[in-house]
Amino acid sequence: MDLLNTLVEKGLRRETPSREEALAVLATSDDELLDVVAAAGKVRRAWFGRRVKLNYLVNLKSGLCPEDCSYCSQRLGSKSGILKYTWLKPEQAAAAAGAGVAGGAKRVCLVASGRGPTDRDVDRVSQTIAAIKEEHQDVEICACLGLLSDGQAERLKGAGANAYNHNLNTSEATYGDITTTHTYADRVSTVQQAQAAGMSACSGLIAGMGESDEDLVDVVFSLRELDPDSVPVNFLIPIEGTPLAGDWNLTPQRCLRILAMVRFVCPDVEVRLAGGREIHLRTLQPLALNLANSIFLGDYLTTEGQSGKDDLAMIADAGFEVEGTDTTTLPAHRADAAAAAGAGCGGHGGEGGGCGPCGDAAPVDAAPVDAVPADAVPAQAAAGATVSAPAGTRESHAGLVAVRRRGAGTDLPPNA
Ligand code: SF4
């Protein structure tokens, strides 16, 4: 397939595909799906080998957010029945983080609900970072605290935060449909503040919120331009009590096409398989490891993931290996650029809640070269693609989403 050969060659050169090529990946048929995964898998292995980085989420403060992000169970007026608690003490957060590290995580993502931190909140998070690093010197810390005010990124960097997560979530054109209390530009600004302060930026998307193929390509191209080191790809977890609770728009095949498109557009970036992988990819989860080089271990912010033990078994069974702390995640050209900039991820974009400019660096181990959302059917049909069986309904997916009742904020041990 000429399209796939072209995309592999571009991925190995870190060259941006055209919008038409990215859209064509999303419009491929089920007959072509394994070829798509194999092609994007070549790009993934060229830059990241068979390594899988594990990240662990610690929800420092849950629920009671004044913002109205329609996908989020922590939003203003949420009726989701999630755990609600205020700031964990540093030692409580460190204990939760320690469970993730013991499970194999090399990055801990410290997330707090809210529009953004106060300066006092930054103090709290700084103390938490110190408590975690006292026990685990090598662990990477990513903070995800919402919109940042002047000087806060620098303070977090000074406290030891290696990275900052803030997702774009969806295209600029549709942003106002999912959130009205802040803007897409606010989000871009916070990612840029984190980068300017020397932190590694983590910024991604949520698929499955009724967006079109064009919207998905828009947000991924915007991410490439913003150039985060890590791009979490969340698949909407339609949590009861949120406005999007009935949005079961994704199929496993659609999720794989989205991940492949992200890999082709952001070839040398840490593409992270984030929230919603269990409920949308289901038995096809292991195939996604050929596309993403990073996942969250265990539970998400307010919902439960599969057991950490099952995550590790899945990685081993699929022939991949957990990335150790002695290995640098990013390819040398990106890691060197980050080091020169002084840089060393999570939830204000779904439940798990960091593309690069072209250059001349070579891949490390050179490799050669459904249900479709209702509003995407016309695009796929127009492209001549095979349209899979319907994604499903709220009723057919009843029981797939479990609200988190263990770990941070409870007396029960965390899932890691
Ligand atoms: S995504 Fe973040 S800002 Fe939006 S409602 Fe949820 S916690 Fe609040």
Automatic annotation (TrEMBL):
Q: Where is the Radical SAM core domain?
A: 47-277
Q: Which domain of life is it from?
A: Bacteria
Cofactor annotation remark: Binds 1 [2Fe-2S] cluster. The cluster is coordinated with 3 cysteines and 1 arginine. Binds 1 [4Fe-4S] cluster. The cluster is coordinated with 3 cysteines and an exchangeable S-adenosyl-L-methionine.
Q: Which SUPFAM superfamilies has this protein been placed in?
A: Radical SAM enzymes (SSF102114)
- Residues annotated as binding [4Fe-4S] cluster: 65, 69, 72
Q: What does this protein do?
A: Catalyzes the conversion of dethiobiotin (DTB) to biotin by the insertion of a sulfur atom into dethiobiotin via a radical-based mechanism.
Keywords, comma-separated and alphabetical: 2Fe-2S, 4Fe-4S, Biotin biosynthesis, Iron, Iron-sulfur, Metal-binding, S-adenosyl-L-methionine, Transferase
Q: Which Gene3D superfamilies match?
A: Aldolase class I
Quote the Pfam families the UniProt record gives: BATS, Radical_SAM
**Family as reported in the entry's similarity comment:** Belongs to the radical SAM superfamily. Biotin synthase family.
Q: Which coenzyme or cofactor does it need?
A: [2Fe-2S] cluster; [4Fe-4S] cluster
What EC number(s) is this enzyme filed under? 2.8.1.6
Q: Protein name, please? A: Biotin synthase
| Record-listed [2Fe-2S] cluster binding positions | 109, 142, 202, 272
Under catalytic activity, the entry for this protein gives: (4R,5S)-dethiobiotin + (sulfur carrier)-SH + 2 reduced [2Fe-2S]-[ferredoxin] + 2 S-adenosyl-L-methionine = (sulfur carrier)-H + biotin + 2 5'-deoxyadenosine + 2 L-methionine + 2 oxidized [2Fe-2S]-[ferredoxin]
Its UniProt pathway annotation is:
Cofactor biosynthesis; biotin biosynthesis; biotin from 7,8-diaminononanoate: step 2/2
Extract one GO molecular function annotation from the record: biotin synthase activity
